[in-house]
Amino acid sequence: MGEPGRTRPSGSVRALSIAYDTALLDLDGVVYAGGEAIPYAVDALGAARAGGMHLAYVTNNALRTPDAVARHLTELGVPAEPADVITSAQAVARLIAEQVPAGARVLVVGGEGLRVALRERGLVPVESADDDPAAVVQGYGGPELAWGRFAEASYAVSRGVPWFASNTDLTIPSARGIAPGNGAAVEVVRIATGAEPQVAGKPLPPMHRETVLRTGAARPLVVGDRLDTDIEGAFNGGVDSLLVLTGVTDPAQLLAARPEHRPTYVDADLRGLLTGQPEVTESRDGGGSGDGAGFGCRGWAASVRGGALVLEGEGEALDGLRALCAAAWSEAGGAGSGLDAGKALSRLDW
User: What angle, 0 to 180 degrees and rounded to 10, lies between the N-to-C axes of helices 88-97 and 205-215?
Assistant: First the structure.
């Protein structure tokens, strides 16, 4: 498990691309959104790779195959091989293969990524509950996934067929905003059947196991935009993490994060791989809650007063956010979700 009760972001004298041998990078919301590269991602990843860091792309999106993802990354200017891509489809296919006979049929509700991963495990994808499937698997199938596919899954699951899900992310970033993810589709079948699926994707152990098996990373750094998948997955795997603010997590959500959702490092985007990370220091004269504790990061000082986060000083907005994280995460055993952060964040234009 990860570090229990983290109360502040960590610092690093060395650039993260040097301090860690492998970056385990989420894709949607980190490298690209809606098919287009996120600003600074291509150049930052190129510099990290040139400095010797191994880049692996770990995604809960089960729609596309590793070949397709690698081609897309290469087209964006991030050279990648299929072996560099690890998907929740691969993780769930391994999980299913461990529980059903070789050559078994599996009813697929999802896209080509799931079908390819199942075939790699010697399993046979089928389309109907009447095809005598040994398992049902759901993965993100894109916005065009027909409603009838959920009905097929529900028929089979209601008959007692084991049910698996690649992941349960409720949302997925797109170029137009936040769209429903596979978790929303899983809820449709859950409501119809009352059953519970076995889930493989982040933050659960099957995905971490798949990633370790395929990358062989000795000192990995998980890089993601989601607290409940990327960061919690790193926590569960006992490895460090970097949260980038280019996807679904905003500063207010970060301040309210539960212990298992608190990243080791916080940065605006993937340029954070190329730099060290500043230390957040504690003082006893910061005007904080109870004992007067306060937290500083470069030119900023953060504390809790009267149930609200207070931010004083000036400097880079990210440094102010790091100080606020320390104040929020340290308050009342980490109950940061009950604090008023609006005024403090307004000083950072968030």
Answer: 100
